């Protein structure tokens, strides 16, 4: 089957061209929020559910649909999770967009990109789902030429992105699985070179073993992500809270010391009890990266370092753009002689500098396959829905230096021309102590955070009783 002419290749996507997702809004300390603290403690998540329900009801009444900047769930879905614990939240539900911040796909993607540096496992999982959907749309004998082309290009893009050794998103799989999938891909490449009219792609079942391994790694990352979302403070603020809590506890010793030295009534030592309790609560919360001050002012969390970086680069909060529902994996990657960059990089891996992108081409949008409107791929912040390929002149002049990096110091493309923003992003390990915070919109997380505060309060009671018993038993100084 002859492949139709394709339009001229375009430059690599810049920061402004990639998938735009609105940054989380910055919050402020409001005294009115303190009045709602008892409600958040005794009925965690109730205020969030009412807010989401209000937005949902306004949409049902025919009002203009609000700008869902986080691609999160509406109140109708969230209220069904009213008694769900955080440990019951599944990775598949997060990927499918059934939760609100900080449990969205974008939040999970950020965690993988910046914390664990393993976003390729998520991208491969999403690609395989889309590839399987496209493959199963029609039997092999009934596929249209456009379907065959879309499958072949999606397959080539995945090879260049997840299995090329020069790709920053290369999958980390055991050697036996890698040899098996490499031999399968090489067989397709050879068959395609011998007969250009043949179907140059593998069935989705060929990737099952690789997917099982990467899915296990992704599930381990998700458990770590689930622990992080409960925390409302970063490391620096956690250390500060621990210091403040220990200092508060130490201040509670002053009445005991004064009574001992001045031979006063022991009853005055009880003034230290509130300080011993409160200091312990603050210190235990800081140890778990949960700031009691932020909690008292609402269901909030500190901004992460990568979010601060986005604010610094953008200057102002960028507006969320409407995403195309076009299949994001339909960009092909081919070398000058028509082979994919997977074959080219495996044959010339020693002569190709790391990070050099391969030549790419794209199919006209009219011939591309449309995906589901509710595809979770629309939530991705660093994998664009329409990857723009690099031109031949740019690719040939781009080595491991400026050609493969964006002005902000980030890696701009994979070998398949796909944008991967945080590959080389230099970020601090923690946000500043007094960093701004943003609102959390998940009742599940609100309940889990309340449980952490209750645990810290119980520890505070234990420490207060032990410290009080010791201090009250200390005799006054004899004169």
Automatic annotation (TrEMBL):
InterPro entries hit by this protein: RGS, RGS_sf, RGS_subdomain_2
Chain residue ranges for the region called Disordered: 315-420
Bias (Polar residues): 326-335, 363-376
Pfam families given in the database record: RGS (PF00615)
Source species, domain of life: Eukaryota
Transmembrane portions of the chain: 239-262, 274-297, 452-474
Biased composition (Low complexity): 389-417
Domain RGS: 108-218
UniProt keyword terms in alphabetical order: Membrane, Transmembrane, Transmembrane helix
Name the record gives this protein: RGS domain-containing protein
Organism of this sequence: Rhodotorula diobovata
Upper lineage: Eukaryota, Fungi, Dikarya, Basidiomycota, Pucciniomycotina
